[in-house]
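Supplementary Text 2. Reproducibility record for the structural model of the 373-residue chain.

All settings were left at their defaults, and a single model was retained for analysis rather than an ensemble. We include the record here because the model underlies the residue-level annotations in Supplementary Table 4.
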Amino acid sequence: MPTHTYQKREPELQIDLSAIAANFHHLRSLVGSNTEVAAVVKSDAYGLGMNLVVPVLLEAGCHTFFVANLREAMQIRTKLASSVQINILAGIEDNALDVYRTYRLAPVCGRLEDAILAAEKLPELVLGLETGFSRFGLTFAQVRAFKHRVRREPDLAISHLACADDPIDTTNRLQRDRFVAMCQIVNPRRRSLAASAAVWLGQNYHFNLVRAGSALFGLNNAGVEPNPLRPVVQLFARIAEVRAVHCGEAVGYAASFRATRSMRIGIVALGYAQGLPWSAGNVIAVLIGAHKAPVVGRVAMEYVAVDLSDVPAKLCTEGQLVEFIGPHLPIETMAKVAHTIPQELLIRLGANCRPTLRQPCHDAPWILAATGG
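Retained model, structure tokens:
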């Protein structure tokens, strides 16, 4: 069978790079001129591809990036000027001090021994502080120990809010107060507490730098209405087969759906192997043209069934595009009914679907690194 026949059936995750730039500019407008917006591009830019996303953010004016680990840091450092700041959330990795120095990479030090080592050996000192998330970061006692042992002031201190998506949760204020108290001890040159959702908590949480991740990719974690963020992805798959199902017949594994009438069913080439949640079976709907159609039966590894009974026959053909995520089917809606979160969906879909650019993007040239400055 020709290769192009297989490609026709591949699900397609369309990415609007201009929307990422627009979301970055919107966040900058919210925090003001005294606060920098850094980009969190960990996990391969939330599954969308750092090689696609980082140049767009760089051209939009982003000068600071956060990545998950040293491998991701090297992936973008070799294509960026050394003046662009890259922070590594995983902290110091074994035997990597020379790499950090050579390529000007800053591990976020959340352990006391790492913080002391970085203060002695690395040009950039970034501290992670534990303020109530209970995941990495120096405690109050460790901050005091660090202050007693190290004269150097950190270049940046960061922490992370546990409940930023709930503006009335008192944990936010508690963590902010702890963060301020810790910073008074170590006196960092810059401070960062807010990630995406915390941008909408107000200027008291912005400090010198906010770390935007999910918001850049159009995920409205803060639940702001109307949603000020532009959607970044659309998910399409194609109908592989159309079948008639009689009343009472089962559809899919475990007969979790039985036809209540004679129905027209479309078998769509998208399943949990491509990132569609197994839990989406029988609970989500799709769009075929302007017509909404429910998913029926369980999500299988590479296929899912859709009820086409109320869709015009001219649209019920093999090869017809089916929209799963888009302007009228927000990724947040799928995540909610499938009992997951948009970030997980984005990463799974990005890792397993064929990415395409939804709108032509003028090439944002990489700035070649010069390790000497």
